[in-house]
Amino acid sequence: MPISRRDLFRKLAAGTAAAGIVNLPLSRVVRAFPSLRMEAATPMQVLLNRDENAYGPSDKVLEVLHDAVASGNRYPRTECESLVSKIAATHAVQPEQVVLGPGLSALFRSVATIFLGPGKKLIQASPTSPTLGAFAQQVGADITNIHINKRYQHDLPAMLAVPGRPASLVYICNPNGAIGTLTPRKDIEAFLRTLPVETTVLIDETYHHFVNPNGEYASFLDQPVRDPRVIVARSFSKAYGLAGMRVGYLIGVPSVARRFEGERLHADVTIVSARAAAAALDDAEYLQLAIKRNSDDRQEFLNRVNGYMLRALDSHTNFIMLKPGRPVEEVVEHLKGQNVLIGPVNPVMPNYVRVSLGTPTEMDAFWAAWNLMPATGKMEM
């Protein structure tokens, strides 16, 4: 039903009053309160559900994307090789150690095909990023999930103590892509020293750039990868802001990297994606900006959490595991009703909701929607 001019001005007046109450610009309030929108308008969703970089790629990358789109009718020529060379130079490894793919999901599917299968075992944390486990199940592998310890870290001693034949593959996501926490580097190194030679370890560093500087963490790409049991995974989806371009890579020793040659599709990384990722690697200034901005946004969110007397896990990613003190399904559904989408509830962490960091405007919309939550429900502190 079309809105009348009188109703429009009445709603705008109400919106202006609301903006004054919460000290927000009217445009932010309209995004947060669907009732203030005109009936004919399409509600704008606030997407805080997939750990995306809400700010997008750098201006330099956007320029390259604009120009590269005109080449979308062509298959890649030298663009992928050029990107591989840039990745290798960034990490001080040889190009033959780099396995490029259309996002880590595709590469993890290849990992499952190569290293797993019927009668082979995957050991991973619980909870952790679910992608590899899903592919392991598809290929018929045995999966052993080891619950995280009381510090929300990988329980590496328990992983070592799993009975039966040695694991074919161990998956360590650090920071943990399910909850955002860290496992100390020294503990992982000690773990590697005790593993049998037939066990491969996939270390997923998707969220590497967002780690707060501390003495417990260092990337396994801080020096050239020489251990044939170790594969390190990285992505352009997070800090670089290229989730929609689907570019990821693995780094291992050359003999391990060669095992992926028969699993990859020809020209699976597009010419546009390859050029964009190469430009992102060249823009070191923007990467530092993205890292600092995420750190500032994360701290601001945690300040608000403390102000509401809520609890959250210490995060080293671009999402926060928030304990809302009420049934989590109610929280997810309420926010969805206010056009604010957050991550799905993890059954292993049933008292937490997962909130990706957005722009300041989006986070204001989140808290405005939170303030509308009914003061009902059993508190779960």
Task: Write a structural description.
The chain has 381 residues and is α/β, with parallel strands linked by helices. The protein has 2 domains: 5-55 and 286-371, Aspartate Aminotransferase, domain 1 (Alpha-Beta Complex); 59-283, 3-Layer(aba) Sandwich (Aspartate Aminotransferase, domain 2), CATH 3.40.640. The chain contains 13 helices and 12 strands. A 7-stranded mixed β-sheet has the order 2-8-7-6-5-3-4, sandwiched between helices. A 3-stranded antiparallel β-sheet has the order 9-10-12. The longest helix is centred in the last third of the chain and has 24 residues, at 284-307. The chain is globular and about 60 Å long. Residues 1-41 and 377-381 have low confidence and may be disordered.
Mean pLDDT: 89
- Note the main sheet: 7 strands, mixed
Strand arrangement across the biggest beta sheet: 2-8-7-6-5-3-4
The first-level CATH class of the largest domain is given as Alpha Beta
At CATH level 2, the architecture of the largest domain is: 3-Layer(aba) Sandwich
General shape: globular
Which structural class do the helices and strands define? Answer: alpha/beta
Name the helicity range: 25-40%
